[in-house]
UniProtKB/TrEMBL annotation, chain A:
Its main location: membrane. The lineage of its organism: Bacteria, Bacillati, Bacillota, Bacilli, Lactobacillales. InterPro entries: ABC_BtuC-like (IPR037294), ABC_transp_permease (IPR001851), BCAA_transport_permease (IPR052157). The chain crosses the membrane at residues 12-35, 42-60, 66-92, 104-122, 148-167, 197-219, 239-262, 274-293. Keywords: Amino-acid transport, Cell inner membrane, Cell membrane, Membrane, Transmembrane, Transmembrane helix, Transport. The gene is livH. GO terms for cellular component: plasma membrane. GO terms for biological process: D-alanine transmembrane transport; L-alanine transport; L-isoleucine import across plasma membrane. It is a multi-pass membrane protein. Belongs to the binding-protein-dependent transport system permease family. LivHM subfamily. This is Branched-chain amino acid ABC transporter permease protein. It is found in: Cell membrane. It holds the Pfam family BPD_transp_2. The keyword Disulfide bond does not apply.
TrEMBL record, chain B:
The gene is livK. Keywords: Amino-acid transport, Signal, Transport. Coiled coil: none annotated. SUPFAM superfamilies: Periplasmic binding protein-like I. It comes from the Bacteria. Belongs to the leucine-binding protein family. It comes from Tetragenococcus koreensis. This is Branched-chain amino acid ABC transporter substrate-binding protein. One of its GO terms (biological process) is amino acid transport. Residues 44-384 form the Leucine-binding protein domain. Residues 1-19 form the signal peptide. Pfam families: Peripla_BP_6. InterPro entries: BCAA_transport, Leu-bd, Leu_Ile_Val-bd, Peripla_BP_I.
Length: 300, 396
């Protein structure tokens, strides 16, 4: 039983990273019906920006330890947000009126481009992440939790709540919701659609960068290909929760994390990735709108 | 429009058929020719390096390049082989198996090398086998340890050799080491099941081990999260954790296991042998970790080791690693083969390598057996706080 609780906790932490990334997929899809496959690469670049920042903080002897990490986290989120906007502007905006498949192919192309640019400049080797926050393990009765795991959970839940507030309470959030319902009608109501879409990319990319940095700190290893597997899995998470639905993406992320962990617990560690994709197929067959999605009946 | 595409495809198809034709023909012709393989020409003996100089396992390739370069420098200083200087032709296979095959073809046909060193990993070596066999040029891999490299389908690969021992041998020795030295009656395995290397190691270990294997979990290359598997293993009662895999995952496994409170010894094979393993795991976590190595400065195999270490430090200003030593030996094995045969033609070198006995290398005294594997002692190195703290030589 204790073992099971510990495993559930493991799954929860893994899931919170997937959830952070899934939010980016789901927002972009919700607003322009594009699956942004370059999202995993933003996550990777976010972690690299953090890596170089923390290293330079250490060499210049400014902002040591935890403060350095949080400062790097904030800067990395801002830079990645900017990068997300640039990608949208250069790669997706010119194709917004073309078929969905061409945008999708472009997204895949951008993803490969970013991977290869990073490999070219920074070598494909995995590199150890500066451990600017010393790890401490707390024993809470039956389970062990480390401060880094707690940090991951707290940062991701805080960001998710913040996102929900932005979308529900701010003017920009209102505009995002309007654009997602009807692009043209929103424009007629005086909403600057381009700016709203850019803002969405910025938000999603900032979240992905945060995920990348947390993972770097947690596993102590980053490399230019690190975004591929988590990118695909959080895409599955977004679909699972109901693509386009924000709480659904968070829920989907946690579910995927738990599925992976449970697969190992029950001796299917060989098949844990396959299991995630099997879940995707099942959900698409049984409930294509996702767990939280509403089945919209099309009127004939 | 459609028609245009159809023509284009048909055209491409014919073109590719044409380019495949002649090379197939020449290979057939080469078989009947008594002057098969590449002949040594001019005043230099050309040896090719087909190594992972960029890409996922660039760490291995770069080290092997250093070792081979040092060996060549020494050989040329001492007057070369049979009075001729050795020239290295270095090419990067980008840690990609297909690229390794292309590089092998390139070196053997365009650069006319008489012997090749590399690639570093088993998969890349296997990919390169058809091309070097076709060209009849011997290939000595410094670190391709998979069993099926030299013998596949009970057939000894005529042109393939290695300066390292094979996986099954490492697995067998580790099983012995676990029983005899670590007194482990129960072993848990957390192994990579996505590489031939690791599955070979697992099989050899399980076949040889006398104690019980109480748990076995698998992971695949690129995994970063081992919490679930380790949490599960932590609950089982085992004396030793065996991790057949490469340093990238091994480093993370050691880190996560130690942080979780798994204190048992962790053992692995030569795939652990990279500084990155310690960096990824964090120095404080690498204690009670043992792996089989080909070479350790703490347990020198013979008198050649000390001068090798001095020369290496002189040239590169650092301690030589296993991979440096293995490729150094690979180059010297080729030299010995040329001298024994008194000829630097590629087919003669292959013959010389196959018959090489009592060669004194820095990684031990090597005799090539009938399966083209070197028979030599093995070292198990142990770590405390990220520092090499013990080295035991184990004879085959």
């Amino acid at each position: 039983m204790e073992l099971m609780i510990q495993q559930l906790v493991n799954g929860l932490f893994l899931g919170s990273i997937y959830a952070l990334m899934a939010l980016g997929y789901t927002m972009v899809y919700g607003i322009i019906n594009l699956i942004n496959f370059a999202h995993g690469e933003i996550y990777m670049i976010g972690s690299f920006i953090g890596y170089f920042l923390i290293q330079s903080f250490n060499t210049w002897q400014v902002l040591p330890n935890a403060w350095g990490f949080f400062a790097a986290l904030a800067i990395s989120m801002v830079v990645s947000a900017f990068l997300g906007v640039v990608i949208e502007f250069l790669a997706y905006r010119p194709l917004r009126k073309s078929t969905r498949i061409s945008s999708l192919i472009t997204a895949i192309g951008v993803s490969y481009l970013l991977q290869n640019v990073m490999i070219y400049f920074f070598s494909p080797d995995s590199r150890p992440y500066p451990q600017s926050i010393a790890r401490k393990t707390y024993s809470l009765g039956v389970i062990d939790i480390s401060n880094i795991q707690l940090l991951i959970l707290v940062v991701s839940v805080t960001l998710m709540i913040l996102l929900q507030v932005i979308i529900k309470k701010t003017k920009m959030g209102k505009a995002m919701r309007a654009v997602s319902v009807d692009n043209d009608a929103a424009q007629l109501m005086g909403i600057n659609v381009n700016r709203t879409i850019s803002f969405t990319f910025a938000l999603g990319s900032a979240l992905a960068a945060a995920g990348g940095m947390l993972i770097g700190l947690y596993y102590n290893s980053i490399d230019p290909m690190m975004g591929v597997a988590p990118g695909l899995k959080s895409f599955v998470a977004a679909v699972l929760g109901g693509i386009g639905i924000i709480p659904g993406a968070a829920l989907g992320g946690f579910v995927i994390g738990l599925i992976e962990t449970m697969a190992t617990v029950f001796g299917f560690s060989d098949y844990k990735d396959a299991l995630v994709y099997l879940v995707l197929i099942i959900i698409l067959l049984v409930r294509p709108a996702g767990i939280l999605g509403k089945n919209i009946k099309e009127k004939v | 429009m459609k028609k245009k595409f159809a023509f284009l495809f048909v055209g491409l198809f014919f073109l590719s058929a044409c380019s495949a034709g002649p090379s197939g023909g020449s290979a057939g012709a080469a078989g009947d020719n008594s002057n098969a393989g590449n002949q040594q020409e001019g005043d230099t003996i050309k040896v090719g390096l087909n190594l992972e100089l960029s890409g996922a396992v660039a760490g291995y390739g770069a080290q092997e390049e250093e070792g081979a370069e040092l060996a060549v420098e020494k050989i040329n200083e001492d007057g070369g082989i049979l009075g001729k200087d050795v020239e290295l032709v270095t090419k990067d296979n980008k840690s990609d198996n297909n690229e390794a095959a292309t590089t092998a073809a390139n070196l053997t046909t365009n650069d006319n090398i008489v012997a090749m060193i590399g690639p570093a990993t088993s998969g890349a070596v296997k990919a390169a086998i058809p091309n070097v066999t076709k060209a009849q040029v011997p290939m000595v891999t410094p670190s391709g340890t998979d069993d099926s490299i030299t013998v596949s389908n009970d057939q000894v690969q005529e042109y393939i050799f290695r300066s390292c021992f094979q996986d099954s041998f490492q697995g067998v020795i580790l099983a012995k080491y676990a029983t005899d030295n670590l007194e482990a009656e129960k072993t848990a395995i957390l192994g990579d099941n996505s590489s031939d290397y690791a599955t070979g190691l697992t099989k050899a270990f399980t076949d040889e081990y006398d104690g019980d294997i109480v748990a076995q979990e698998n992971f695949t290359k690129g995994d970063k999260d081992f919490q679930a598997a380790l949490t599960k293993l932590k609950e089982t009662d085992f004396d030793v954790l065996y991790v057949p895999g490469y340093y990238e995952e091994a480093g993370l496994i050691i880190k996560q296991a130690r942080e979780m409170g798994i204190e048992q010894p962790i053992i692995g094979a030569d795939g652990f042998g990279d500084e990155k393993m310690i960096e990824l795991a964090g120095e404080e976590n690498v204690s009670n970790v043992f792996y089989t190595g080909h070479f350790s400065a703490l347990a020198p195999a013979n008198d050649t080791v000390e001068p090798f270490i001095d020369d290496f430090k002189g040239k590169y200003d650092k301690e030589p690693s296993t991979f440096n030593a293995l490729s150094y030996d690979a180059m010297l094995m080729i030299k010995a083969a040329i001298e024994n045969e008194d000829s630097a033609d590629s087919t003669d070198i292959a013959k010389g390598l196959a018959e090489l006995q009592d060669f004194v290398g820095v990684t031990g005294n090597i005799s090539v057996d009938q399966d083209h594997n070197p028979e030599k002692p093995l070292v198990v190195v142990g770590f405390t706080d990220g520092e090499e703290s013990s080295a035991e030589t184990i004879e085959p």
